[in-house]
Write a structure and sequence with these properties.
Layout (H helix, E strand, L loop, with lengths): L5 H17 L8 H14 L41 E2 H24 L3 H18 L6 E5 L2 H5 L14 E4 L6 H18 L4 H20 L4 H4 L1 H6 L7 H15 L2 H10 L19 H16 L5 H18 L24 H21 L3 E3 L2 E3 L1 H15 L24 H4 L12 H9 L30 H4 L3 H16 L17 E3 L4 E13 L2 E12 L5 E9 L5 E2 L2 E2 L5 E3 L12 E9 L4 E9 L1
Antiparallel strand pairs: 1-2, 2-3, 4-5, 6-14, 7-8, 8-13, 9-12, 9-14, 10-13, 11-12
GO cellular component, one term: extracellular region
Family: Belongs to the glycosyl hydrolase 9 (cellulase E) family.
Catalytic activity: Endohydrolysis of (1->4)-beta-D-glucosidic linkages in cellulose, lichenin and cereal beta-D-glucans
Amino acid sequence: MARLTIASAAAALLVLLAAASTEASPAWSDYAGAFDKSLQFFEAQRSGKLPADRTVHWRGDSALTDGFSQGVDLVGGYYDAGDHVKFGFPMAYAVTMLSWGVLEFEKEMVAANSLNRALDAIRWGTDYFIKAHTEPNTLWVQVGDGDSDHLCWERAEDMSTPRTASKIDASRPGSEVAAETAAALAASAKVFRHYDSMYANQLLMHAKEIFIFADTFRGRYDDSLQCAKKFYPSASGYQDELLWGAAWLYEATGDENYLDYVARNAEGFGGTGWAVREFSWDNKYAGVQVLLSKVLLAGGGDGDYADTLKQFRAKAEFFMCACIQKNGGNNVKTTPGGLLYVADWNNMQYVSSSVFLLTVYADYLAESGDKLKCPDGEVAPAEIVAFARSQVDYVLGKNPLSMSYMVGHGDKFPTHVHHRGASIPSVYAVIDTVGCMEGFDAYYNSKGADPNVLVGALVGGPDGHDGFVDDRCNYQRAEPTLAAAAPMCGVFARLAAEPAAAGNSRGYQPPQESLHIGGTPLEFVHTVTNTWKTNGVDYYRHVVTGKHACGHPITYLKLRIEGLTGPIYGVSATQEKEMYGFPSWVTRLDVDDKLTIVYIQEGPAAKITVAEYKTG
């Protein structure tokens, strides 16, 4: 046997240490990667004319005449899951949750360099909702027929099934879907307030009108529309959505009339009576209770609404305690591996929504210096986040099967997803049309892996015993949905930022470098000051005022101006397309300074956002 010298032993130790130091972190802790992938999933679900700069290249344009046969333009929006129906109810919920995620974790999304992509995901939905709201009391809430769509296995680009559109109106009300759409538009209006004030105003106008419609003409949409009965009927009714919509309008406007509406109807609509253990596209009670607890914890608990807000908080804490298994035995069930388990069908949507509420509520508590009070004892905010993290880790692969339930994340993930587009070769790979039955015969029943990886999709997840069968026919557990994906986006961004440093309540320290990517250093206020007609064309003079919003002098600024077709003053063009900087006479913006931009053009307004800035 060869003798090991001290020198050779030291060298061997150094090799081992070097290997250990370079060993990759487990995929389940790659929250930044998961955030990036979750946004890719929303791109893959887009309907309509796709932009040239998309990252999901196997998808093509689809459903370019939706609504035309009924005299309305309903092109755009999102396909719901593995099918090609545009269901307005869960789509609106997804947009609300994406927006809530941006509102709570905007800085974290900036740190991940993905805020603009999150805003694009929201806007793809809100642009569609604006189209769908054709009159004050008319909202188109579905495109496509679930029964005929499910009899076909074909790509979105090849669709041959009926694209019948369905609407609610004064004679056929649908308060739950209308109020949820109002919530989505109100939440997104607050998101866009600092980025595009004209668009935010448009969103808020529609949100207010749709909420009035939902409240004035009360009724269940699954009573009004036969097509809603089978696929997305509301078990909880519409009263939770009315509270939810009003709460979001209060959040977006600060108008106490909406808070008064919530307080007056809190008991009658079940907001302070229902103690729930789930939060979903259907049941909004836990979401309402957490959102209104934020008002209380932020110091808004004085005055006429204090007692009502405290009741909402009590019910919110019931939900929290039930999730983290400290509710005196009245807890949410878990699998042996520790995953929250609410329902057999697409349980992941409940995990996703619960994790979101746990995370934001923990931050609300931390910011107010409070703790969660459960029957089994007090819980610090950090403990709540730790539980939420354990759920996310399970989803990303830290589970008995070492299976990531996010497609494309890690080394082991579902490869037979119940999704038409993923399972059939792209239109760019197989140009010939794939018909309904051919799709079933050749691809649905195929044992081969998906030719298109549906990156970022959260499938339905394991059964109650941590088991999972990776089979395309297993639609209860292998199908992804918008409703499951949306809440997790913000949570991924939040957890990705947390390990960066310690110091504040979230354990996240903003980057020390002076260069910032994206963000909100300026609040843009957009007005039209003049309009005229020349040769039959309407022209508009736009004035955009950038008000200082970051608290530090801005020494460098790069703006992205999209959709500009006319002359512009007050900024200087750079060599990069659509990029503009300070004009030659401005070298910095102090805290009290404003940047004024004027441009003239026909048609819609240009979109102005901050691409980069430096503070000094």
